Amino acid sequence: MGKGRKKHSENGGRKPRGYKSSVPTHQFCFDVVLYFEDHSMDVTLSKFYKDLEGSQLQTKCTSVYLWRKKKGKLVELCNSTGTARLRKSESEMIAPTRTDVVEWIAGDWDELTADTIANGFKGVVKESIDDGASKRQVGQIVGRIESMDLLDKRMGEVSE
């Protein structure tokens, strides 16, 4: 008996996959969503997926609902014929601005413990403040926090 995988045919070769992965284009998804807005799910599925039945049809039903959720993105992608013909799109990650981060912290500031706040600043500020630049940096941070009325004046100075 030979070693390795059993051959699919006399000529050898690999056995074909048992599933077919088909990803529709953005334009197709958008067309389905537009049609679904005016028709029922059964009519929509029978128009676009005539040959499917059973669990495959249920899977497509779920897909239609997901496409409807991201209709705004599909509209944006289908504005250009180049992206309308694509099957996948890269999502853009946008870094938050400093103002966004400060507002986010301000929103949840009351829930933070004093230790959490102190540990958060350890990575930003040096332990020993020797030079004038570090002192100015600390002063700017404290000034920014004070300007947003986030400091509790009753607490006094924080010590370790």
UniProtKB/TrEMBL annotation:
Taxon lineage: Eukaryota, Sar, Stramenopiles, Oomycota, Peronosporomycetes
Name of the protein in question: Uncharacterized protein
Origin species: Phytophthora cactorum
